[in-house]
Amino acid sequence: MLDSHTLRNTIFYFRLFLIFIILMTLVVWIEYWVRGEIGMATELLEMARSQWGREVLFAGGMLYILLLSLPFVPGVELGLLLMCIFGKEGIVFIYLFTVAGLTFAFLMGRWLPKNWIASRLE
Fold first, then answer.
1. How many alpha carbons fall within 13 Å on the CB side of residue 21?
2. Which of 1, 90, 104, 117 is close enough to 69 for a disulfide, judged by CB 3.0 to 4.6 Å?
3. Full-model pTM
4. Phi and psi for 70 in degrees, rounded to 5?
């Protein structure tokens, strides 16, 4: 006959084993799901790169320049999206678009008269 201490240890290790099995099943399921999602995302990116190409990159870049030059508008997210979609080529162009957008914002602040801006904001 088992004493209470041995029985408690047996129950504890059995529960630990069940938790381990459940966690391993969950990890395998999540890994399978993530591989499927990555495969779908890869197919979508390849389709976007082949069908849209540089036209979408430049159109998105122009929109990115405008959004980045406006204060309090989160344009950086669009730049990150374009970098993720277009890869290394996108990173180079988004860097150039970032420099252009920040230069445009500086020039707007430098050349627009303060009185004209204040009258528009009132």
1. 6
2. 104
3. 0.52
4. -85, 135
Which residues, other chains included, contact 73 with Cβ-Cβ below 8 Å and sequence gap of 6+? 67
Q: For residue 70, give the DSSP letter.
A: S
Q: Which helix (H) or strand (E) holds 65?
A: helix 54-69
Tell me if 51 sits within 8 A of 86, measured CB to CB.
Answer: no
Hey, what amino acid is at 38? I
Q: Which two structure tokens, joined as six digits, stand for 103?
A: 């230069």
pLDDT in tens, 86-103: 777 778 888 888 899 889
Q: Which residues contact 94 (CB under 8 A, 6 or more apart)?
A: 61, 64, 79, 82, 83
Whole-angstrom distance, CA of residue 7 vs CA of residue 19: 18
Phi then psi dihedrals of residue 88, to 5 deg: -60, -40
Helix %, strand %, coil % for the chain, to 5?
90, 0, 10
The domain spans of the chain are 1-51, 53-122
